Every structure is written in C-alpha cells, then in structure tokens.
Amino acid sequence: MDSSIFLDITRIAGDFLNEVISLFFQMAPYLLLGFTVAGILSVTLKRSMVARHVGSPGFSSVVKAALLGVPLPLCSCAVVPTAGYLRQAGASKPSLLSFLISTPQTGVDSVIATYGMMGPVFAVLRPVIALFTGIAGGVSSMFFSRSENAAAAEASDGGAADPGASPAETEEAKEEREAKEERETEERGKGSEPAAKGLSIPRAAGRAFHYAYIESIDDIALHFLLGLGVAGLISLLIPDGFLEGSLIADGLPGMLLMVLIGIPMYICSTSSIPVAVALMAAGISPGAAYVFLVAGPATNAATLAVLKRMLGFRSVLLYLGTIIIGALLFGPLVNLVFAAGGWEPVLSSAAGEAHGNGLLEYISGGALALMIGAFFYRTLRSRLGRRNTGPGNGAENTSQADRIVAGDGPDSREDGGFRISMNIEGMTCAHCASTVRQALESVEGTRSVSVDLKNGTARVHGHADENALASAVKAQGYLVK
C-alpha cells in the first residue's frame, strides 16, 4: 500500500518535471533572442528621445506614447520609473496613461517568445491590441481631463473669495504645475539627463549585454519559473481538451474567470506565455487565453500604489478599467480572427512532445539555466552579505546627508573622497536598481556606486555633488529621501 502510494507520487512528480522541463527548453531560444534585442534597445532607445515625442499635449502624443511603449521590454514594475521620468520631462497625463497601458502588455522579448510558443497570429495580435488599448486609455484620460477643467472653469466663473489663491485649480493643473516646478529645479542641478554622456562601442556593448543577460534575467527569473510551474500543474491536473465545450472554455464567463485569475497572479508578459499555452491545451479558447495574457502582466498591486501617488486615483481607475474592459472586448475579437481565418492556435508544448527538442533548444536551455542559476547565486550572496553585515553596520540606514569622510570610517579612501548614502523610494525590480546605478555613475565625480534593491538604498563614493546625485536619481522617476 505504502509503496504503491510512493510510486504514484513519484510518477506524478516525474510527469510534472517533464512538462516543466519541456516548456523550458522550448521557450529558451526565443527568450534569449528576445533578451538580445531588448539589450540593443536599451542602449539605442533613450528616455530623452521618448520624452521628446510624448511631451506635447494632444492625440498625437497619446498615439506616439503607445507606439513607443509597445516594443519596450518593461514589466509593470519597471515601467513606473520610466513613466516618472517622462512625467518630469513634461509628458501629459493622457500620454503617460497610454504609455503605462501599452508597455507591460507586450515587448519585443515577449513577442518573439509568443511567436515561438503560440504562433504568428498571437504574435501579431498582442502588440496590435496593446497599441489600441493604450490609445484608448490615453483618449479616456483626455476626455476626463477636459471635463474636469470645464467644471473648474465654471466654478471659477462663479466667483472666488481670493482669485489669487486659485481655489478652482484642478488636480490635473496642480500636478502639471508641481511637475514643472520639479523639472525647473532639477534642470538647475547636474545630471538631469544622465544618459546624455556618449558611450563608446565597447561600453555600449557591455551595457547591452548586462541589460540583456543579467538585468532581464533578474527581472523575470522568479516569475518565469512560477509561470512554468503553474503551466506544469495545469497540464498535469487538467487533461488536454478537458475543458472544451464547457461554460468557461469560451464566451464571457471564461474571460471573466481569466481576469479574476490574472489580476492577483502577477507575472510578466513573457512568463504568462506558458500558462496561456497550458490553458489552451486544456480547452480554453484563444480569446480567453488572450484575456489572461493581458490581465496578468499589466496589473500589480505595488505598481498601482505608485501610480496613485504619481497620477492620482482617477488615473488608476482609468488604467484598470481600460485594461479589463479592453481585454473583455478584444477577447471575442481574437476568437473571431481565428475562426475567420480558419486557424488553429499553435501550441509548442504539443509540438515538443511529438517531435522532441533539438540541439538549438538544448544549447539555449543550458545557457538560460546557467543565467538563472547565476541570478540565484547573486541573490544568495547578497542576502548572506547583508546578514554578515547586520543592521546598523552599513550606511544603508543613514540619511542622504550622512557622509563618511576619508579617515573617519572603514569605508574611507586615501583619495580624500567621501561616501554618501541615499534612501531611494520607487525601486521595485532589478531594472530599477540598474537604472539608479547608471544615473549615479553618470554624475561627475562619482567613483563607485552600490545599490541595495531590497533596502531601497544607494551608496556613492567619490567627490560628486550631493544635489547633482539627487537630481540624477529624481530625473529617472524615483524619490530621494
């Protein structure tokens, strides 16, 4: 009896691991290609260039913001500081909302992975629909902003006790004024555009490599493994085709269920792919799977909290409403596209089981496994280092103004430099930490920089001006305490 149970458990565990490993090897080549393209974009597509195109108010900026956001390989965490930078650079709220909605739904890396795992139809539909939903969100924000401004004008015409106090100033106008004041303050400091420094070809290649194979891996590793695990469980517990013809396989009930599953289960646009593949193999319609591909990557509780502070509660409601309504509207359209073309979804897991993996899959899978292993090694080393240091022994608990001057502490240097510790709010992922590090390194006089993502701190050694350092960080959309 006991041996029979043990054998059953062993068989189930083996089936689960086989499914997970098969998906891992099938996705590996497309992920590595996507990361490579993302790395190239990271050094060629500058935030300042994006800001120039989305800075003016109006419909054209909303469209440009969505167009620029679609290819960027940023999850809903990493997109927030980018949006903060654009806000400080003068981008309007409708443009920001368009950018925030379109960007996390897809990216060049997830499009390539979608093509490999789900076929060309999904690979085309994902960015196209992300573009339209981003524009829809921006236009909605324009409409509500105009309504709010009109109401404020009527209130102002009704008379005010103190016109100079501007009692009818809208939330939109107030935020625009505050953003303008902050921009003017930062322009007076140094480093307001850290990316302005020209990069040599070797340094640009090194930065692209670092972004592609270290930062991108750090961003998705845990979510990717979670997605593979969920996909393996679905494949194990729900036989292929089991849900076909059921109430949740197609139509509004199934799509609503995908929204309810996707919103609390935050995974990035790339990591959601194996889950969607497993759901379709179980019998879920392409439209319902698409709803999951949108609802999961575009929503994140931490991100929503930051957006509320940055853009206001109304914009958060517009953000969520556009994503949910857009997913439910475009889900049936995805089904219609597949039906009209007579296409069947291409599910690579089934193809992999039928034909097995080739040399490319094994080489790519081995490389990806090494990169993910390096991520866990870096994480473990960082945690052990903090444990050995102990609370209160480092400078991470000091204020921005706390300095250790040469000769006054163990971290002093013979060159007479000093160390500044900064508490930074808004860093949520490895991409955020890298952005802060690069911003600080760009400030003249900086010798070395270390960023602690978990504690939200950065330490800078050198002769850099403290205000310039703070301005460089703020210019990237983060807060310095």
TrEMBL record:
Coiled-coil region(s): none
Pfam family, one: ArsP_1
Record domain HMA: where: 418-481
GO MF term (any one): metal ion binding
Transmembrane portions of the chain: 20-43, 124-144, 220-238, 247-267, 273-295, 316-339, 359-377
Coarse class of the protein's main subcellular location: membrane
Annotated GO CC locations: plasma membrane
Compartments where found: Cell membrane
UniProt-annotated stretches for the region Disordered: 154-198, 387-417
Keyword annotations from UniProtKB, A to Z: Cell membrane, Membrane, Metal-binding, Transmembrane, Transmembrane helix
InterPro entries per UniProt: DUF318, Heavy-metal-associated_CS, HMA_dom, HMA_dom_sf, UPF0718
Protein name according to UniProt: Transporter
Organism: Salinispira pacifica
